[in-house]
Design brief:
Layout: E1 24-38, E2 53-71, E3 79-84, E4 87-88, H1 93-103, E5 113-121, H2 132-150, H3 156-170, E6 182-185, E7 199-201, E8 214-218, H4 229-235, H5 242-262, H6 265-284, H7 295-311, E9 316-319, E10 325-329, H8 334-345, E11 354-358
Parallel strand pairs: 3-5
Antiparallel strand pairs: 1-2, 2-5, 2-6, 3-4, 6-7, 8-10, 8-11, 9-10
The chain binds (3R)-3-hydroxy-3-methyl-5-(phosphonooxy)pentanoic acid.
Length: 364
């Protein structure tokens, strides 16, 4: 059954036309990357997810974007220039133009200005870490700052909600890159305030065990993905396991909601690893089928499982849509687990590269 775009989307249409008096300006915003615990894989029209998802917002991996805007006289087309890490980057333009087309309804001022968008990531360009989530979130935050200049009455809460709403239209998982901590995106009847339109902070008390949770990202393959997530989402449309998968994700959301409150790390590991392998299992059982893991991805997983069995330490992993491995572990065991990562796992990374990250709870 197809979900219908909720009416509340109209809530985000900017009716203000005062932009006629704003000539130019500069805005800057920073947005974090995130790693999903329960994964989003499969979508409806208008970037509505087939199932809810939940993620850790990261600290070390982020995108910083500056947008310079200037009034233009012609208002029939979008005018953008994109710079990535100081250099003109025309290959990013089509994605941003598509994004502008999708959000114009909610930001009627977009065709009235020319935009120079300068963006940089804290993580290396070719690291296999998707920058679309943090990139679209940072751009959306910039656009909301421009909207705030036009309409100074906008409340902070509305700004963040609409930034997440816009970011979602650029890249679904970007909706979870606006807020720190743990973020839920997608409507779930048992999670209060959850919405298909934007991400919300996990609305329950988080157990101490999950504060400062570590995520060491092992860069197994820094190349471009062979199959994009856009194609992966589409392949869920005729996927033989689609309906059971969406049901499973909904059940896992309930399980993780309880786990994050009661601090049960053993159950956490079970859900998170199962979600990672399910995501890749769905890729392998799509038609056409594909594999994004590499031999080193599996080497690392096997070593994590052996180390966990031998030491009883709560190390676990998750995967994004790629070969890199996110090694997850609680603050209290960070020393022993980090030692193991360095001595046994980084040899499986490209050029021994890895990034030490953790869930961020700092308020902006
Ligand atoms: O945001 P997209 O369209 O690139 O999809 C990302 C999907 C996963 O990263 C694989 C899972 C998720 O929930 O982040």
């Amino acid at each position: 059954m197809s979900k219908i775009l909720p009416l509340e989307a109209n809530h985000f249409i900017s009716k203000n036309t005062v932009f006629k008096t704003l000539n130019q300006g500069v805005v800057t915003a920073k947005a974090p990357s995130n790693i999903a615990l329960v994964k989003y894989w499969g979508k409806e029209k208008n970037q509505i997810p087939k199932n809810p998802s939940i993620s850790f917002t990261l600290s070390a991996c982020f995108t910083q974007t500056t947008v310079k805007f200037k009034k233009k006289s012609e208002i029939n087309t979008f005018a953008i220039e994109v710079f990535f890490e100081g250099k003109k980057h025309d290959s990013f333009k089509p994605k941003i133009l598509t994004f502008f087309e999708r959000i114009e309804k909610y930001m009627p001022f977009l065709k009235h200005y020319s935009f120079s968008i300068e963006t940089r990531n804290s993580f290396p360009h070719s690291s296999g870490i998707a920058s679309s989530a943090s990139g679209m979130a940072a751009l959306s935050l910039c656009l909301m700052q421009i909207e705030k200049k036009i309409n100074t009455n906008l409340a902070d809460d509305y700004i963040l909600k609409k930034a997440s709403f816009l970011a979602r239209l650029g890249s679904g998982s970007a909706s979870r890159s606006i807020k720190n901590g743990i973020v839920v995106w997608g409507k779930h009847p048992k999670i209060k305030g959850s919405s298909d339109l934007f991400g919300i902070p996990f609305p329950y008390t988080i157990h101490e065990n999950f504060k400062n949770y570590h995520d060491t990202i092992l860069l197994v393959d820094k190349g471009e993905k062979t199959v994009s997530s856009t194609v992966g989402h589409q392949l869920m449309e005729n996927h033989p396991f689609a309906n059971v998968r969406f049901e499973q994700a909904n059940n896992n959301m309930i399980a993780i909601k309880n786990i994050l409150q009661n601090g049960d790390i053993k159950q956490f590991i079970n859900i998170v690893e199962s979600e990672a392998l399910t995501l890749h299992g769905l890729m392998m059982s799509s038609n056409p089928y594909f594999i994004l893991m590499k031999p080193n991805t599996l080497e690392i997983i096997q070593k994590i499982w052996k180390f966990r069995k031998d030491t009883n330490l709560p190390i676990s992993f998750t995967l994004d849509a790629g070969a890199n491995v996110h090694v997850l572990y609680p603050e209290k065991d960070r020393i022993a687990i980090h030692k193991f990562i360095v001595s046994d796992l980084i040899e499986h990374c490209q050029n021994n590269h890895y990034i030490r990250d953790r869930v961020s709870f700092d308020e902006k």
